[in-house]
Amino acid sequence: MNSAEMNKVAERIAHKASALALQQQRFLADLIRIRSYTGDERAAVERTLQELRTIGCDEVWMDSAGNALGRIGNGRRVILYNAHLDTNEVADASEWPHPPLEPVIENGAMWGLGASDCKGGVATIVYGAAILKELALSGDFTLLVMGATLEEDAEGFALRSLVERDGVHPDTVVLAEATDLTLRRGQRGRCEIRVRTTGKAVHASTPHLGENAILKMMPVIAELEAMNAELPTHAIFGKGTQVVSLIEGPHTPNSVPSWCEATVDRRMMPGETMASVLASIRAAIEPLGATATIPDQPVSTHTGLRLDGPSFYPGWLLEQTHPLLAVGQATGRALWGESLPVDVWRFSTDGAYSAGAAGIPTLGFGPQEERYVHAADDQVDLAKLTKAAAFYALFPLMFVNREGDQ
């Protein structure tokens, strides 16, 4: 398909996206009404499966980890669209301008919990697929649409299960997280480290007979903080960071504590590994008598499946010259006549598994704006929602067309 033909297809897709906009918005409103905290996504998954059937996917199913999946086509190249259905919990609903689970349209945006992270993304990828079906557009691709679970607490664990447990192997992954209609080509990684000191417990009335693990932790914390000056630096992501985010000990206020444990949040550059992170921390704290480990993240799906794994989420970066980024740019130009800005995420996504662990080329694109993520004014612009659906409808055609040109 030459560029003139592709531009005509893009016009048809944009028109169909507008025609389906109200249907797309009704689906998003339904998702917002469903409380779907991490690990309790079943109702949102079932609603997504219903919509995937309604739009006419060739196959619709729920995998072993409880993700909602729909398939269109049976071509050689497997493209996976990913957006997650789980949300963070609401701490105080009184802080919200509208009730979090009651979708409201105001100033051209739909407000509600998860609108920007990431139910707006789910509505985007589902209706990208709907446009493909409505217009009977096909090619040498298999498109998989994934309403993912577990992302807020354990980025990539549900996607890892789809690939490694259920045997689905995409050639590329596109994440519909917040990008404000621009492209994302990477993210910082994150991990959790537990640092522990031990002492000797005695009654608090005779502290001189014991060894206070909290006091032993004080110079360790100072050393952990001092490490920030020497953490890896990246030309794109800037400097790595680590912060002591939690301190625990025995719940016995009338005893000298025999142990103290500090939790460290480490933000990493692409290429850092569990071994390299632990080696740097251990070198700093072991001379002070402390130990460091990366704990397992306990994860239970709404299906009851346990997916526990290391609390380590690698960073990743797609090369500027990678063909996948070129496909994203070509898709934007065909639809809107201009190149799309390219950036990276500072937060973590399911790309921690797809790109960071599995090495699957991964790209980000979504209508949502990062400023509304995890905020009481959570919202997504409806005009951008429509435009993003058009992007996801055209992308598979552009993907296989550019491959055919090479």
Main features:
2 domains, alpha+beta, Aminopeptidase, single chain, 10 helices, 406 residues, 5-stranded antiparallel sheet, Alpha-Beta Plaits, 9-stranded mixed sheet, 21 strands
Please provide a written account of the structure.
This protein is α+β, with helices and mostly antiparallel strands and 406 residues long. It folds into two domains: 3-187 and 315-405, Aminopeptidase; 189-297, 2-Layer Sandwich (Alpha-Beta Plaits), CATH 3.30.70.360. The chain has helices at 3-19, 21-33, 42-54, 115-134, 157-165, 213-226, 274-285, 323-336, 351-354, 382-405; strands at 59-62, 68-72, 77-84, 104-106, 109-111, 141-148, 172-175, 183-187, 189-198, 233-234, 238-239, 241-248, 259-268, 291-293, 296-297, 309-310, 312-313, 316-317, 342-345, 362-365, 379-381. Strands 1, 2, 3, 6, 7, 8, 18, 19 and 20 form a nine-stranded mixed beta sheet that branches. It starts with a helix and ends with a helix. 49% of the residues are buried. The model has no long low-confidence stretch (mean pLDDT 96).
